[in-house]
Write a structure and sequence with these properties.
- By secondary structure, the protein is an alpha+beta fold.
- The chain has two domains: 212 residues, Sandwich (Immunoglobulin-like), CATH 2.60.40; 60 residues.
- It contains nine helices and eleven strands.
- Strands 7-2-1-10-11 form a five-stranded antiparallel sheet. Strands 5-4-8-9 form a four-stranded antiparallel sheet, covered by helices on one side. Strands 3-6 form a two-stranded antiparallel ribbon.
- A hairpin with a 5-residue loop joins strand 8 and strand 9.
Length: 339
């Protein structure tokens, strides 16, 4: 059960990273008022999940997927290194194309439904959120986000005709529902638009709107279940289902352990001496037991214990008195004449 819990936790962590997405990109920045004095290109990431996600050890790169996958195949055929190690080696070899988000910065813990901006200025000494590469103006730019295990999390192709002061952004914040459920984070042109700041709908606001104003799930429950009856039924159903599952698990574990105990007891019974089993089958009649005990006692104590040594004494005559015939015969009585 502990192993299952650990695996579930790791799976949940991995799934949370897959909810990170590239939300908006600007190649030619001509307004430093809201960019901490930076006029460099920037890339905005968005945490589309409802849980905090740590993005440390993730990779932002301008290498296209074909190059990354061929690199993995080539290196894995030569060595047994894991993909996180291969990505680090690729970063060391191409620091102008691959950036690894470092550990140790608390700001890399992205809260639910919030943004974080990385500046593509090529100056990593300026801090965690300054990429080691830049974006080229007037040409097509490709940016991808990879997880530490080498999985492609999200990607975007910025068109070459993007003008200064314009950004390339998702029409809807975060990943669309169908893409999110299917785990498909590949670039889809129809999901993106060019923003120039000419209206509220076209506003360029990197990292400003940190909380989504409307939660679709909450609104759906309000429309479909205004009284909250179905929500209550669902909640109680989940609780009782969990209790039922625990009851079934405990019953199964109890039967399993009881079966093991029974098998062990049967093995011990088989291993008992035959004499002991025969004695048990004979019953426990007190009179029979007493008679057997008395017979054994008399048999073992019928005679005194003797030394078993014979002694011959040669100091007397050669024959004994009982072998003398004269002593065995009756004597003739003597006649006395003196009347």
């Amino acid at each position: 059960m502990t192993l299952i819990a650990v695996v579930a936790a790791l799976s949940a962590m991995a799934q949370g990273r897959m909810d990170m997405c590239i939300n908006e990109v600007m190649v030619q920045n001509n307004n430093s008022d809201n960019q901490n004095g930076k006029c460099s290109a920037w890339i905005e990431l968005f945490n589309a999940s409802y849980g905090t996600n740590g993005i440390e050890k993730m990779f932002i790169t301008t290498f296209k997927p074909d190059y990354i996958q061929n690199y993995f195949k080539d290196m894995e055929s030569k060595s047994n290194k894991k993909r996180n190690v291969l990505l680090e080696e690729l970063r060391n070899q191409n620091p102008d194309k691959v950036y690894e988000i470092p550990r140790g910065d608390v700001n890399t813990k992205i809260k639910p439904r919030t943004h974080v901006v990385f500046y593509a200025d090529g100056d990593t000494t300026a801090g965690t959120f300054h990429l080691s590469f830049t974006l080229a103006a007037g040409c097509e730019n490709y940016v991808a986000l990879y997880d530490v295990n080498g999985d492609l999390v999200d990607e975007v192709i910025i068109p070459a005709n993007l003008q200064a002061g314009q950004s390339f952004a998702r029409i809807s914040e975060g990943l669309p529902t169908d893409m999110h459920m299917n785990g498909n984070h590949n670039f889809v042109t129809s999901q993106w638009e060019v923003r120039d700041g000419s209206s509220v709908a076209k506003a360029i606001t990197p990292g400003k709107f940190n909380v989504r104003p409307v939660n679709e799930n909450i609104e759906m429950f309000k429309n479909e279940d205004g009284s909250g009856i179905w929500l209550t039924i669902m909640s109680m159903g989940v609780v009782f289902c969990a209790l039922l599952m625990l009851y079934i698990l405990f019953k199964l574990f109890g039967k399993a352990f009881a079966g093991q105990g029974k098998e062990k007891k049967e093995e011990e019974t088989v291993d008992e001496p035959v004499e002991a089993v025969a004695a048990q089958e004979g019953g426990d009649d007190d009179e029979a037991i007493a008679a057997i005990c008395m017979a054994l006692y008399q048999h073992l104590n019928a005679h005194d214990e003797e030394s078993g040594v014979l002694t011959f004494d040669h100091s007397h005559e050669a024959h004994s008195a009982w072998g003398s015939k004269g002593n065995l015969l009756l004597r003739v009585p003597e006649h006395h004449n003196n009347h």
